[in-house]
Amino acid sequence: MPDRSLEQWLEEIETRHPSDIDLGLDRVSAVWERLKYDIPLSEAADPVSIIVAGTNGKGSCVAAMQALLLGHGHSVGAFTSPHFLHYSERIRIDGVAVADDKIVLAFELIESARAEISLTYFEFNALAALTIFRQANLDAVLLEVGLGGRLDAVNIIDADIAILSSVDLDHQDWLGNTRSEIAHEKLGIARAGKPLIVGETNLPNGFYKMVESIGAEPLYKGKDFSVHDDGPAGQFSVSLSTHDDTLLIPHITHHNLLPGNITLALQALVSAGFRIDPQNSRDALGSLTLSGRQQRIKFKNLNLLLDVAHNPAAARVLASNMPTVKGTTFAVASVLSDKDWTGIVAELGVSIDIWLLGKITDNHRAMEPQTLYEVVYNAGLKGSCFDSVELAFNEAIDLAGPDDQIIVFGSFHTVSSVLMIISKEG
């Protein structure tokens, strides 16, 4: 076992548990309690822990907090999912993916501690990140929820700060069929007496009562802190709530991260007690980009926009931020079978001229290309389907010209397939 490579470990844990998704904290909590006694602690005091849930925007919040903390001289660990090209993207220390051998060592510790307890792939992921962070000398740990919140593996940690970026319909099979039910699941990351940073402004029914019942200390975007356009295009200002005053940071430049998510990151760090300098913040955020989030790339002299939008709410944001071009807008798209593909197409239909639909081939939950095409066809839109995302993308490359654009979206898997092609040919 000690001689297993990271790839061999991943192959093993992907198939070991009876189901891909098995929400609940009993198994992972039990293993973590055992693990904590086997992990040598770093010399540092306990780091500030911040957990992020939300239908959309989680990864952007984590990326912004990581950049801001590093820009202010702090050490930080960040756990996100899924990854695009390499598994180690999920576990970063000071912005750098940890080495494979560190992950293997963490997996070995988990394997020894779990004994008779079966763990899902994501539970192994989360425990590996927590194990590695516990051994590092960190000022802050940032944890992105994988699914929901209340029963997600990272929620075994009683975080100092909770962020709820947004609430919309997604993953209804696990989280509920209404925004109120989904909010209840996501609010499970909040803790009594600790700050809860709320980015959703269209609050579902009963939201305030849910927060009150938890006893968290909420700060609401648009009420307690805010974001505003600020002068030149691409700049904005934020007004943050401190313990006894308001902190204004003007003239922030952003690239492919949405200002609202950056604002959540800033408010969370202020609420956590970090001293935030306006100029350091502007410097840290000025060059910040994130793969697969409104990511603009030039490839073979063609304009690409990559976005992991995988539900109608995210598709609506993508449509509102899509560039206008002289030529044709091609979509290379695919989703997993539990997604509201009809709703996604409805949000983007008027923005896309030709749909090129390919199957995600690295996940058994992928929607069939013919099913994707039928929705597009029934909406009166022009498109065709392919056996893989890669084939759909190659077709887009063949068809597009310098005045056109190619929009790649629908899933991390979709964007990952295209990024893999670009990395090999770049």
Task: Describe what this molecule looks like in 3D.
- The structure is a single chain.
- This protein has 15 helices and 17 strands.
- α3 (58-71) crosses α9, α3 (58-71) crosses α10 and α11 runs parallel beside α12 (341-348).
- It has two domains: 6-286, UDP-N-acetylmuramoyl-L-alanine:D-glutamate ligase (3-Layer(aba) Sandwich); 295-425, Alpha-Beta Complex (Protein-Tyrosine Phosphatase, Chain A), CATH 3.90.190.
- With 426 residues, the protein is of the alpha/beta class.
- The protein has an eight-stranded mixed sheet with strand order 4-3-2-5-1-6-7-8, with helices on both faces. A six-stranded mixed sheet has the order 12-13-17-14-15-16, with helices on both faces.
Summarize the structure.
The protein is α/β, with parallel strands linked by helices and 426 residues long. It contains 15 helices and 17 strands.
CATH architecture name of the largest domain: 3-Layer(aba) Sandwich
Largest sheet: 8 strands, mixed
Tell me the span between the first and last alpha carbons.
37 Å
Which of globular, elongated, flat, extended, rod-shaped describes the shape?
Answer: globular
How many domains make up the 3D coordinates?
2
* Widest β-sheet, arrangement of strands: 4-3-2-5-1-6-7-8
Are there runs of 5+ residues with pLDDT below 50, and where?
none
CATH hierarchy, class of the largest domain: Alpha Beta
Individual helix count: 15
